C-alpha cells in the first residue's frame, strides 16, 4: 500500500519548481531536477502535477497571486487619486526590479521561451496576467479624463515593460538607476496629462 503524502508536499514541490523555473527558465529545468531538489519521488510529483505543463501553470498562477497582492497593496497605499495610483503601479514594479534575485518578469520570460503557444495552459496564465496588468493601467488612465488615454497608457506600459526587461542584462546598480528614472518619468507623464 502506498504511503500517504506528508502535509505540505505539493507546496514543497511547487516552491522548488518555482525557484528553479524563475532562475533557469522552464526549458532549462527538467522534472528529475525538481524531484531531486524537492526530495520527493517521481510518483508523488506526478500525483500532484500530472504533466510539466501543469506544474508550470501552477508556478505562474502562484506568481500571479503574489503579483496581484503586491499591486493591490501598492494601489491601496497610493490612495484614491488615479495619478498617484499610476505612479504606484510603476513604483511597485521598480521595487520588484530592485530585488537581488530579480531575473525579469516570470510571465514575459515564459512567453519568450514559448512564443508559439506550445504550452497552452501556462501560456493562458501568462497572457491573462499581462492583460490584467495592462487593463489596470488603462482603467486608471481612463479615470484621468485625458485627451488621448491610449497614448498615455502605452507610455506607462512601456515603462513597466522596460523595468521587467532590464533584469535580463543590467546589474543591480543599473537596474536601480533605471527604476528611479522610470518612477520619475511616470510622475511627469501623469502630471502633464
From TrEMBL:
InterPro entries: Homeodomain-like_sf, HTH-type_TetR-like_transc_reg, HTH_TetR, Tet_transcr_reg_TetR-rel_C_sf. Residues 7-67 form the HTH tetR-type domain. One of its GO terms (molecular function) is DNA-binding transcription factor activity. Keywords: DNA-binding. It comes from the Bacteria. Residues 30-49 bind DNA. It holds the Pfam family TetR_N. PANTHER family: HTH-TYPE TRANSCRIPTIONAL REGULATOR RUTR, HTH-TYPE TRANSCRIPTIONAL REPRESSOR BDCR. This is AcrR family transcriptional regulator.
Amino acid at each position: 500500500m502506498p504511503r500517504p503524502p506528508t502535509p505540505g508536499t505539493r507546496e514543497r514541490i511547487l516552491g522548488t519548481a518555482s525557484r528553479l523555473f524563475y532562475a533557469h527558465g522552464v526549458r532549462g529545468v527538467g522534472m528529475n531536477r525538481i524531484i531531486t531538489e524537492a526530495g520527493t519521488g517521481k510518483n508523488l510529483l506526478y500525483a500532484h502535477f500530472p504533466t510539466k505543463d501543469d506544474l508550470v501553470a501552477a508556478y505562474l498562477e502562484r506568481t500571479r497571486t503574489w503579483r496581484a497582492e503586491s499591486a493591490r497593496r501598492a494601489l491601496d497605499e497610493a490612495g484614491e487619486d488615479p495619478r498617484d495610483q499610476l505612479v504606484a503601479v510603476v513604483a511597485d514594479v521598480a521595487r520588484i526590479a530592485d530585488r537581488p534575485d530579480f531575473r525579469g518578469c516570470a510571465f514575459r520570460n515564459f512567453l519568450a521561451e514559448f512564443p508559439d503557444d506550445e504550452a497552452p495552459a501556462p501560456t493562458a496564465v501568462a497572457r491573462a496576467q499581462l492583460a490584467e496588468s495592462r487593463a489596470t493601467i488603462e482603467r486608471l488612465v481612463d479615470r484621468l479624463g485625458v485627451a488621448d488615454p491610449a497614448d498615455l497608457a502605452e507610455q506607462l506600459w512601456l515603462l513597466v515593460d522596460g523595468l521587467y526587461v532590464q533584469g535580463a542584462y543590467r546589474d543591480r546598480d543599473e537596474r536601480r538607476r533605471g527604476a528611479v528614472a522610470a518612477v520619475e518619468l511616470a510622475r511627469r507623464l501623469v502630471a502633464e496629462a
